[in-house]
Amino acid sequence: MKSFMHAALLLAACAVSATASAAIDMTAATYMLGINDEVQVSVFGAHPIDVKTRVKENGGIVLPILGEVKAAGQTANQLATVIAQKLKAGSYYVNPIVNVEITSFVSNSVTAFGSLQQPGIYPIDRPLTVAMVLARAGGTRGDAADYVILRRKGQEDRRVVLDELANGSDEALVAGDAIFVPAAQLMYVYGQVNKPGKIEIRSGMTLRQALAAAGGPTLAGTQKRVTLTRGSETMKKVALDTPVKAGDVFYVNEKLF
């Protein structure tokens, strides 16, 4: 059974989908342009302009008539205002109507991939956390692990458990971060159990918890006679509090009457 955090992420994702147009407006209002971001600049009037261009290394974009205009450090709306003012000040237009849309977020974004409903690149248009990006990505898929891997340049990969996010231990993200959601690893429980078969491994899971996930022993089974096969090794005496590992095969034997 998936944890409460999975359900919370899916609910958040529904809220994100329901307000998609509002989110686009918020991005235009708050996202700060940076190097290599791509923008579509449209000027409506007697001499319309429609240009798609990237922000150069010096922070500027090149437009017809005006030449280079500084874009880095401004929102799309602020850039549109600057362009309109320059066109009017140069007597090129009387009342220019300028629209700027960000068509590619590169300089201030994070990447989310793996077992997600909507993996992709997400702009940092406001302070973002791991939980917020997972919600934007529609939540995790049914085969997902109960943790994510946070990758940050210059640091070792870190494992963030979803239940910890629900408890308030969320992680603030910075530009260039990547969130990877792996598929859940599997172990197997067979023998005298009510629901034999594969078990998705949860963070910190023990053999006792795996046995519970398999429905517990049948009336003919006993926790006192179990076998654990791990790789090429088979253990006939193993504590139920032993942490499980991917690929483990746990077998519950019959009682000795």
Q: Which keywords apply here?
A:
five-stranded mixed sheet, Outer membrane lipoprotein wza fold like, disordered N terminus, wza like fold, 3 domains, alpha+beta, 257 residues, 15 strands, 32% strand
Give a written overview of the molecule.
The chain is α+β, with helices and mostly antiparallel strands. It has three domains: 73 residues, wza like domain (wza like fold, 2-Layer Sandwich), CATH 3.30.1950.10; 74 residues, Outer membrane lipoprotein wza fold like; 69 residues, Outer membrane lipoprotein wza domain like (Outer membrane lipoprotein wza fold like), CATH 3.10.560.10. 23% of the residues lie in helices and 32% in strands. The protein has six helices and 15 strands. The strands form four sheets. The protein has a five-stranded mixed β-sheet with strand order 7-6-10-8-9. Helix 1 packs across helix 4. It is rod-shaped, with a radius of gyration of 27 Å. The N terminus is likely disordered.
Brief sketch in words of this structure:
This protein is 23% helix and 32% strand. It has six helices and 15 strands. Strand 6 (109-114) and strand 7 (120-123) form a beta hairpin.
Which stretches are low in confidence, meaning pLDDT under 50 for 5 or more residues running? 1-26
Number of strands: 15
- What is the helical fraction, as a range of percent? 10-25%
Largest sheet: 5 strands, mixed
CATH domain class of the largest domain: Alpha Beta
Structural class: alpha+beta
N- to C-terminal separation?
A: 34 Å
At CATH's second level, what is the architecture of the largest domain?
A: Roll
Q: Supply the number of helical segments.
A: 6
Shape: rod-shaped
Helix and strand pattern: HHEEEEHEEEHEEHEEEHEEE
- Strand line-up across the major sheet: 7-6-10-8-9
**Strand percentage, roughly?**
25-35%
The average pLDDT value, as a whole number, equals: 87
Count of spatially separate domains = 3
